[in-house]
């Protein structure tokens, strides 16, 4: 079952061939982890969605309140018998059909999908996880690169490259040749008690889990947060490297080229994250 503009339906062909998200990438979306029928970090997802719609100059319907969209998410979970499980939920918003590059109007439609996840909780995976740089193409620093849209060609080609080279992930560079993010998440680098992550101005995604982890670091007396550009040369000197996204949580990197990393700090932050989730659930 999917949720199309508030109507639950088994018809998965509700999008027409002229859909603007399909034809022009005129779409923003949120990928949300839901636990026991509740969307995690929903407030952060909601405000990011609203900001993304404004940046793309979409008209935001008066009905798009935080409460209304949460009700639609929960209804979709229930329709798929996932209210008692852990699920991946995708909320996509796209401009209504009409026009070429220039839309005929700025009204929007939305669709919500939900699929079960195998793990009920975030798991700390400290096994082999090898990454390398993807240097065929580069991210452009700027506001549009921080949005979750379906213009993800670099992530697709990079994922194929990782698969071909038996890598678990790749790190993307921006046009300034700084590390911006991973293929599927934000990057954090650890040196001693300093934890560094690229700023949004470097073109990294404005990740929801990135925000949660940055809040954890900022509120801890054990660490210092630094939001600054990361040169590829810093990777070899780092004590730890980890990747964050809202579906997987915190993923420690075990190896970058010949450099092998520890995972002490990432494990500590992972435990703090689970405590935060329990306290806010």
Q: Can you give the helix content as a percent range?
A: 25-40%
> What is the CATH first-level class name of the largest domain?
Alpha Beta
**Averaged pLDDT, please?**
96
CATH architecture of the largest domain: Alpha-Beta Barrel
What percentage of amino acids are in beta strands? 25-35%
CATH superfamily of the largest domain: D-amino Acid Aminotransferase, subunit A, domain 2
Radius of gyration: 19 Å
CATH T-level fold name of the largest domain: D-amino Acid Aminotransferase, Chain A, domain 2
The tally of structural domains comes to 2
End-to-end Cα distance, whole Å, is 26 Å
Describe this structure in words.
This protein is α+β, with helices and mostly antiparallel strands and 281 residues long. The chain folds into two domains: 2-116, D-amino Acid Aminotransferase, Chain A, domain 1 (2-Layer Sandwich), CATH 3.30.470; 130-280, D-amino Acid Aminotransferase, subunit A, domain 2 (D-amino Acid Aminotransferase, Chain A, domain 2). The protein contains seven helices and 16 strands. The chain has helices spanning 20-24, 42-55, 66-79, 153-164, 208-218, 232-235, 264-280, and strands spanning 2-4, 7-9, 27-35, 38-39, 86-95, 108-116, 130-139, 169-174, 179-182, 186-191, 194-197, 224-227, 240-245, 249-252, 255-256, 259-260. The strands form three sheets. It has a six-stranded antiparallel beta sheet. The chain has a five-stranded mixed beta sheet with strand order 9-8-7-15-16, covered by helices on one side. The chain is globular, with a radius of gyration of 19 Å. The two termini are 26 Å apart. The model has no long low-confidence stretch (mean pLDDT 96).
């Amino acid at each position: 079952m999917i949720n199309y503009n508030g109507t639950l339906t088994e018809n998965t062909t509700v999008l027409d061939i002229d859909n603007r998200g399909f034809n022009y990438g005129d779409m923003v979306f949120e990928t949300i982890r839901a636990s026991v029928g509740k969307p995690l970090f929903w407030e952060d997802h909601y405000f990011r969605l609203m900001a993304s719609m404004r940046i793309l100059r979409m008209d935001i319907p008066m009905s798009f309140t935080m409460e209304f969209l949460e009700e639609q998410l929960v209804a979709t979970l229930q329709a798929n018998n996932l209210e008692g499980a852990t699920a991946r939920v995708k909320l996509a918003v796209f401009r209504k059909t009409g026009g070429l590059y220039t839309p005929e109007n700025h009204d929007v439609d939305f669709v919500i999908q939900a699929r079960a996840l195998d793990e009920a909780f975030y798991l700390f995976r400290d096994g082999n996880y090898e990454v390398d740089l993807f240097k065929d193409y580069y991210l452009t620093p700027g506001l549009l690169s921080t949005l979750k849209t379906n213009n993800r060609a670099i992530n697709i080609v990079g994922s194929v490259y990782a698969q071909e080279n038996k890598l678990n992930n790749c790190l993307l560079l921006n046009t300034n040749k700084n590390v911006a993010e991973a293929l599927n998440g934000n990057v954090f680098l650890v040196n001693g008690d300093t934890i560094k992550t690229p700023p949004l101005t470097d073109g990294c995604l404005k990740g929801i889990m990135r925000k949660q982890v940055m809040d954890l670091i900022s509120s801890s007396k054990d660490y210092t947060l630094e939001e600054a550009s990361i040169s590829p040369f810093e990777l070899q000197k780092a004590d730890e490297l980890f990747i964050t996204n809202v579906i997987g949580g915190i993923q420690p990197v075990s190896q970058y080229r010949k450099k092998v990393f520890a995972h002490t700090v990432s494990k500590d932050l992972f435990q703090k994250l689970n405590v935060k989730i329990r306290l806010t659930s």
